[in-house]
Amino acid sequence: YELWDRLLEKHPDLLIDNCASGGRRIDIETLKRSIPFFRSDYQCNFNENPEVLQTHNANISAYLPYNGCTSKTKNDTYAIRSSYSSSWGGAFYNAIFQSMNEEDFKWAKQITDEYRKIRKYFSMDFYNHGSDVFDDTSWAIWQYHDADAESGIIMAFRRSNSPFDTVKIKLNGLSKGKNYIFTNPDDNTTFIATDILEITLPHKRSSTIFEYVTK
Description:
With 215 residues, the protein is of the alpha+beta class. It contains five helices and twelve strands. It has helices spanning 2-10, 28-31, 50-60, 77-82, 102-118, and strands spanning 17-19, 35-38, 68-71, 87-90, 125-128, 139-146, 151-158, 166-170, 180-184, 189-193, 196-200, 206-214. The protein has a six-stranded antiparallel β-sheet. A two-stranded parallel sheet has the order 1-2. The radius of gyration is 18 Å and the shape is globular.
């Protein structure tokens, strides 16, 4: 702590990342001085279970908006989105036994562009509308809301064994009865809705994102 304090005293704009040592260094004093770029060692595995990452995110985001995650996968949008956080790395190609073709690169760019577009919301108000436990029959649903701009995003995941293709949630932070414009980046469709949102995902182990702004 003393080392970091001296560095920050001499360089007030310095940003310090740290590895949380498997979650053992996510303590108040460390968080006052640095950002845990890796909140868990679990994400260091290849082809990790994305629903574990969702469970991590649903719990830590309620207390610590600045945290990091990554996913070592390619051409798996469900898994990659499960790792989105305020600090994120897309490890699409990171070992000698892996390879990427043109389609892989195209997908990686699309995912990176998607994340960079919505990154600003991951440090905003967080509301959990789905499961916060490891249960592959449920949905994971997150809302990140910018109260000043009256805008935000919804991220929804129908988990691998969920029998339900539709959920209905009441969003937080939105003005009651006011209309908002929702955009789905998967198909570039838009629609008008209030603070009640119905989400349909016809396939198991699938995800979607909605961006919304006040009308």
